[in-house]
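Please check the following.

. . .
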Amino acid sequence: MQPLEPRRDSRMPFIRPSGAIPPGPIFHASAVTGTGTSSPLHQTFFRDILISLLLFLLISEWLHPLAWMADTSIEAGPILVVFALCIAIDCFKVPYTWGWTAKGVLILLFVGFMFDRETFITGAWVFDLLRTIVQDVGYLMQAHFDLISGELRTLLFLLGWSLLISVIQALMLQRQHSLWFVAATLIYLVVLQLVFGADTVQGIMRTIGYGLLLLALLNLSRIEQTYGFASVRPGSAFRWVAVSAAVVGVLTAAAWYSAKQAEPEALMKPVSWAYMSDRLFELYNEETHAGGAVAKSGYGQNDTSLGGPLQVDTTPVFTAKTSEPTYWRGESKNFYDGKGWTQTNQTLEPYAAPVQTGSGKLVAQEVLWNDKSPNKQLFLGGNLLGVDSLLTEKGKPLSRDILLKSTLSGKVALPEIADPLSYYKVTVQPVREDPTLLNSDVGSYPPEITGDYLQLPSTLPRSVRSIAEQITANRLTPYAKAVAIEQYLSHTYTYSLEKPTTPSRSEDFVSHFLFVDKTGYCDHFSTSMVVMLRSVGVPARWVKGYAPGTLQSTDHEADQLQEVLVRNSDAHSWVEVYFPSMGWVPFEPTPGFSGISSDHPRETLTTAAMEQSAMTASLMNIPVPGNFTATSSEWLQAAKHTVIDYAKTNRNLLIMLLGGLIVLAAIVLLLKRKGFLLNGALVPFYKHSLNHPHPLIPYMDRLWLQLFRKYGGKPKDQTVRDYVTSLSFKHQGQKQALLKFALIYESIRYDAVNSSHYTKREIVAIWKAIQKTH
């Protein structure tokens, strides 16, 4: 926008005030006495060093997460050394040519050191680097970007960052602009926290501290001008910096203490964008089911889609008598597809009583089904060794030869044509694990075990494998790995039936639990443990059934049988891990459930054999990687499916959004035409100077803006009266009104004291007169 300048004119008298006031744009205050002076702090080398140091600290906040996001570790330390030297070169005001020559040499030395350390001293790496760059140029010309070497990528990365840092440092030292970069750093760290799940809370607090110090350094002169300080006494700038640093230190310490108090609960939970979009689009989906009832707890047959909140159902399922409390196992499933579980081979064969193995204690169990819960499946507390009695709901006895069993899942049931059971009495043998034996079991697995129980979906996020590898990094045996993952899940995540959310169509169930919800019930914990074990090469399977139930009474006359009531709320899932020496051994990762028989508490055994306390402490300190560790191809694939689903199933919403954008664009165009927008920005704010300009100037500036929008901007060498005179109008009264408007503007802008008699009502009246002549 060009300045509006008064001019002495014989046609229209104008009196310039005695003090010569430099002309300025109509949207900014004119230069005033004292605005050109700066605080001594801004002219000192001490200030430049502090600003450069704070810039380096902000740059470090950008680089640290890069090491977490990369597939392989990035050495951020050497990179920061290069950037620190580049910042120092600009801080010492080294001439441009020499400065960039020094930066280029530093970057080349860094690339040579990182990629060819063995020959770095001899200098032979220089020729290798030149050959590599020439080869990469050929790849670039042929558009084979995937073949570009790491040397050239690193070189371009460092050059780009060096240019960016140089520009940012110049803006801070010369233009005193820093808030935008601090804000960009905060947005970057918050996005990593909310979108990708990275732990950047400490970095956010540090960035806020750096930003406050930068504002204190760069805004001292502006504060003086705002409050009318004429000068600053010697040494006050250093006191200002010291006080600012003390205040920022107190605020940062308070924030850090608050963050520590909130642990282990995360301050910011990662956002599941896919889940949010699914829930949002469901509001506009015409085919969305009505009611949206929450699923109830209980034993079901379909486990292909897990997740979401559960409503507790306390309906009784069966009453049982058992000589020892056990889990009531139903069946296992082996195939995980990222959403739930299925059994690939559910063939049932005639049951044959197995041979008792080991010297484990046998358990007698009787089950009486509730009248409303007849079932053809048997739920057992261990390996079925003997069947004493089977009764249908009509009281008809059945032979044990009618029973069918799946050798893969362990499911025991009646044929489909048989009547449902109402009562059965059996003898079972629970699995008694021997930690000493298991911890030394490093035998090979049979092919049929590895084929079925190491399966994982190809779309499993890399982050799930990464966390499993971190947890089991120092565990040498499969048993140690299983215990490590079991205790990590039970100690790190919380149990809840209401808080879990349903993963979106493009999300993996385990990844959603580990990195988004971080709370769930047995299905979340057991599925996560199976998937994590398989990702580190340990065969495991998912098992479901019922928890032991609620103790009702003890029959002292019948071999100490305990009566328990099992409800739908006791439906449960857990894990079985395969060991060549013992077969399938149960594990319980869900908090609040024991999973092991009372005479073999795993806590005591693992404390003595594996130093559980030290292990648990180390596990709790393992950093949880975020979803950003997934490969770019996985992310793009998920994004593509999400976009396609949106377009297919949510046409109405897309039409509404498109219509809203059109309306918004129309509003913006209307505001620009009326002069309320300039270059996409709101009406410029008129900054009051120390000369106390006339309060009507901001209002008249907006009216001038409308004229410029309609008739074009004012040339630089024209005054406002020349500008109005040069315009062509259909009505002579329009030009006269505009000339009068220009005279009033010049008078109140450059002689505010003597023009105080003008009021807004007069300006409005003149403007209305101009509008009437259009």
User: Anything to note?
Assistant: The two ends are 24 Å apart (CA to CA). DSSP finds 24 helices and 22 strands in the chain. The first helix runs from residue 45 to 69. The mean pLDDT is 75.
